[in-house]
Amino acid sequence: MPHEVIEDFKRDIHWPTVLYYIHLHALGLYGLILLFTEAKWITVLFTMFIIFYAGLGITVGAHRLWAHQAFEATGIVRGILMIGHTLAGVGDIYDWVVAHRTHHQYYGTERDPYNHKKGFWFSHVVSNIYSPHPQKERLDKDIDMCDVDYDGYVWIQRWFYWPMFIVIGLLLPINAPAEYWGESIKNTVFILGFFRLAVTTNLSWLVNSAMLIWGLKPGDKFPSDDNTIFIINKSYWLNYHYLLPWDYKCDEFGTYDRGCGTFFIKTCENLGLVSYLKTASSESDS
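^ Fatty acid desaturase domain-containing protein, sequence as received from the core. Prediction below:
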């Protein structure tokens, strides 16, 4: 394999994005305080449900279904996951998939937008506040998006993202507690608005930075270039995932064949809502 030439370039910090994330997290922290000190118990449960649902939209939807085509889903499931992803407030599915496929294709290089070799802080935070790679448009054209190009749910969300996000991601979840069980407007805005979006934003970031938490570290027993161990023992999720990204059992946060996302997929399979689940067998390696 030829030695890769690393381009020398400068990516500038996008300061409006920095200010947005600073305010989001600061106000979200206040929302967390209100969640434990003032909010009604039903608001706490509702917040947990909304975050869980949005998390499925990111992990099962954008990541496993659309980015890696780990299974096929009916229109009902696609619609549910598309709404969940919109609720997360992390941009449209198409852009998320392009960025994640770029991350896999150029993993660990300067072209990788979340390059883990620069450390967790860069991979998790800084990469999301920098300007794009100067060759981003050309790099995007190198990413095969044919499958997503013909997905109607992805394009409906892409065309109408902002109206959908304002209604689904802001107005409905913020209004519901005040409308149906008398929660204060202050609590709903800071908890269901800022706190919830801060959590879902970090869930989305963590999909691309999790290698630095749950992956193998330098000096661990099994080096990252020893591929056999990841096929035999799938407990090393992150390294295994970068070898076989289409395995639907790969949980985003350090487990294999466990977790809410995998349970959701298996439940949908039992209901006949998803099919052609892709996985690798340790016995057959297929």
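Residues 41-67 form the longest helix (27 residues).
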